[in-house]
Design brief:
Elements lengths: L1 H14 L25 H21 L22 E8 L2 H12 L2 E6 L4 E7 L2 E8 L11 E7 L3 H10 L3 E9 L3 E7 L5 E7 L2
């Protein structure tokens, strides 16, 4: 009997299932913090997505600035004081002088009515070079043809007074040329003659 009991006990122990090991627990997932949604919802997100494109289109529509047209430059002012600005031929034979200088230098000539006389202007390629006066009248006393050089001054009367003070002579007192300017004829202490002139500005 005792042997039978021990045998039955062994069978029960052999049938008893082995204790199960507890299953390893997976680590819990950490909650990811959600970014706060932008105000305005889907409409704001849509505007943000299209903002660069809007900037590009605005830049493309900007008008191109054109350079301002250049203004026409005014004619140059007369040369400063002390510069030769005009050359004048006095001759008793105007027609012959026109032909001579026209063929020699290619000068063109045109007449300008001065009221009591016709003054001739010499020019070349549109630029005036000098003038010519008829010296065949009795007031010229039959003098030879000669060129007169005109020097620009700022005050004809003051320059004439200064020429006298320096030992020169005033051969013709300061005189107005209507619509042109004012001039005088001087002679230096050595006898050379020249004119001073201030054009109307």
């Amino acid at each position: 009997m005792a042997q039978a009991r021990r045998a039955a006990t062994r069978r029960r122990v052999a049938r008893k299932p082995a204790p199960r090991k507890p299953a390893a627990r997976k680590p819990a997932r950490r909650a990811v913090a959600r970014k706060p949604a932008r105000r305005g919802g889907a409409k704001a997100a849509s505007r943000a997505a299209t903002r660069p494109a809007a900037r590009r289109s605005t830049a493309a529509r900007r008008p191109v600035r054109r350079a301002a047209p250049k203004r026409a430059t005014p004619p140059p002012a007369p040369p400063g004081a002390g510069i030769f600005i005009w050359h004048e031929l006095m001759t008793p034979n105007v027609a012959r002088s026109k032909d001579f200088y026209g063929q020699l230098f290619g000068w063109q000539s045109r007449g300008m009515d001065m009221g009591n006389m016709t003054y001739t202007i010499f020019s070349r390629e549109g630029s005036d070079l000098g003038g010519m006066m008829d010296s065949s009248g009795p007031e010229w006393q039959g003098g030879p043809s000669s060129w007169m050089q005109y020097v620009h001054v700022t005050d004809v009367d003051a320059s004439a007074r200064q020429a006298r003070a320096l030992g020169g002579q005033v051969k013709r007192e300061p005189t107005d040329i209507p619509g042109v300017g004012r001039f005088a004829v001087l002679q230096d202490p050595g006898g050379a003659v020249l004119a001073i002139f201030k054009p109307n500005m």
